[in-house]
Request: fold
Amino acid sequence: MIGRVHGVRRMRRIFTRRSTFVPVLAVALAGLAVAPAQAARAPTKSEKKAITQSFLEGRDVETTVRKIRVSTVNPRFASVSYSIAIEDPIVSRAGLPGAARGGSEYSAPTPAIEKKAKGKKWKTVPKAPKEVKKDLKLKSPKSNIQVSGERSAFLSRRASCSGGDGGAGIYDPGSDTYLSIQFNGNSWSGPGWYGAYAVRSVAAIYGSQGQVLLYESGRSNDAFAASGRIYADYGWGLIFTDMSPPPPENRPDSVQVNGEWVCG
Reply:
């Protein structure tokens, strides 16, 4: 009897230990099942070299690559954070968030997106899948453009951009102001600074929901004389220019347009 009782007690102890272990193991496995996906990673040495070379190719402005992240959701996509050299002191005086202290460079408001093509070649693309954007933490801030003079407006919406030619458009319904930036013909040659002319690289303001031209860049007496400067990049840009009503009106530099647009 004593041996049997001892055996029963021993079995109970074993059962208790096992029954305690099983729920703990189940909880641990459940925790593994809901663990979040791995975040974007740093590039390998070869990836960094290939992405940097691809991104800097064809850029007419001095550019410094600051950070590269490769998506773990889809490793064919990567983000590039960078800054550009500032050629005009008006950029640093404008009070925009991307202007660095000292006024020598300007940080891009949103990273560029690189996609790996066939082989080892990467290329800049205007967009990425939703899950990749989330993985790379790609967020587009709002635009920040001030229109002053005869017409007053603040353009804060994200711009509608054409993608591969630098063009952009922003509409503010409150003031019924539509700002258009266009690169006509072969005037777009990649990211860089352009003159604000009445032809080629043109900035204009429209009213009546974008139907009526009110002001345009350039000089009325010379179509190839710039009234300011435009910087256009993939996904964003800067504009600092005067505008005048189209002929036959004669009110030069009636409006000033200064700020940063961000595509979205």
Observations:
- Confidence is low (pLDDT under 50) at residues 1-22, 24-36.
- The chain is about 20% helix and 35% strand.
- Helices lie at 2-33, 45-56, 89-93, 130-135.
